[in-house]
Amino acid sequence: MAEPSLARLSALFFGFLLLLATYSWIVDKGMVPIPKAAGTEYRYNVQNKPIHMDRINPISIEQPEGPSFLVEDGHLVKWANWVFHVKADHRAGMIISQATVRDSETEKPNSRILIFTNVERAGEPRSVMYKGFPSELFVPYMDPGELWYYKSYLDAGEIGLGPAAMPLVLLNDCPRNAYYIDGVFASPDGKAIVQPNMICLFERYAGDVSWRHSEILIPSADIRESRPKVTLVARMATSVGNYDYTFDWEFQTDGLIRVTVAASGMLMVKGTPYENVDDLGDKQDESGPLISENVTGVVHDHLITFHLDMDIDGPMNNSFDKVHPEKQRVPTGKSPRKSYLKVKKYVAKTEKDAQSRLGNPAGYRIIPGGNAVSLLDHDDPPQIRGAFSNNQIWVTRYNRSEQFAGGVLVYQSHGDDTLQVWSDRDRSIENNDIVLWYTLGFHHIPCQEDYPVMPTVAASFELKPANFFESNPVIGVAPIFEKDLPVCRPFASS
Ligand SMILES: [Cu+2]
């Protein structure tokens, strides 16, 4: 594994210099004791901190017949019923594009293609997503004091998630069965920077079930059907200064895409005269909790807005329905029940070309996961620049210049080129080429366990087929039998 190149380091250094040049005056607000810094070493080979737990034996996934995916031309990934393009990107870190899923019920004559020597892929590829990537990453700190008020970062636009991505750590960032892809970027002097092992691809089996049913009402039949859930993960990790973010795009054979952001790394901390919360008396430290002697963990948000250019069965004629489950009251005397849940569609203007058998418009649902919306006032300067986090979900008409939710140029921006501004134009989005924007995030209230390096905290959302397939698309998948896995056996039984 190669060390980071000199050109890459100079690119990062140049970026940090720009940040420093923005705030180049000195403010002295008095002295606080220098923290002891005891127990802050986190590197395994230099720390001396025995852990008191039973050892976990090394673990890995065995694939006796090798991986089930192909990578063509360095970036085109073919796995199970999915085909998509993955690439490293200077600003977004990793971009997934032209994702199609093969629908075995749309097979036409001669549509089978060979991807391995003995495996055929049946059915027609159907477009799901043209392009998806983290468009901006907003981290406002919640200390309005003179030394901290300006600390609100747009990490993708100001730093770039690509150059800040160090090579992944083999066997730890990704499992042994992972395949690695390098990133290639341009340095400020125009030379190429190669970032080795920046993205990994691997099949994940976490012991979960894809679908199952046992027939308890017909005991003589002994029907017990179950299928293991195996997924494909595309992962990159970036270290934007003190913080680390891992981005996963996980593809399931049932058509679902799960996007996960996992945050780890080091807190941005502030000195304080206090060593113990008792020293505070009736006061509360306004910046955040005391996490070590003389060290405060300043409260902040991590808000990551994804650009999701969904092209369900093609770029045009896409619409967005708001679906609300609502409680309904049963009229008195009509039923022993008093209430029930009814699903109501609020923007049901969709007439798609591709209709399913039952007449439902073919679609994908967004299933929110990690919800966090900025609590800053909309007229607060950081929030004007980070206005894309005013809403959890946005839908805009496709415009090729609207890729980055905080604007193309974010250094010292005033919020005049954000997703909020574009959305305020109020263009028609019905039966059109539209882009879905979703913000996930964390309100981070630090605690002692986050210090010196915080355990990973993850949040995710899902893009789930809804009436896209005619029925369960993985009903025909074969189960796994004992003879299929000749390599791995539990140690006790070998
Ligand atoms: Cu945080």
TrEMBL record:
Q: From its record, what is one biological process in GO terms?
A: response to jasmonic acid
Show the InterPro entries listed in the entry: Cu_Am_Ox_Cu-bd, Cu_amine_oxidase, Cu_amine_oxidase_C, Cu_amine_oxidase_C_sf
- Residue numbers carrying 2',4',5'-topaquinone: Y243
Modification(s) after translation: Topaquinone (TPQ) is generated by copper-dependent autoxidation of a specific tyrosyl residue.
The family this protein is said to belong to: Belongs to the copper/topaquinone oxidase family.
Q: Which organism is it from?
A: Brassica oleracea var. oleracea
Active site (catalytic residues): D155, Y243
Name this protein carries in UniProt: Amine oxidase
**Listed GO MF terms:** copper ion binding; primary methylamine oxidase activity; quinone binding
> Which segments constitute the Copper amine oxidase catalytic domain?
60-474
Q: How is the cofactor bound?
A: Contains 1 topaquinone per subunit.
Which EC number applies? 1.4.3.-
Cofactor section: Cu cation
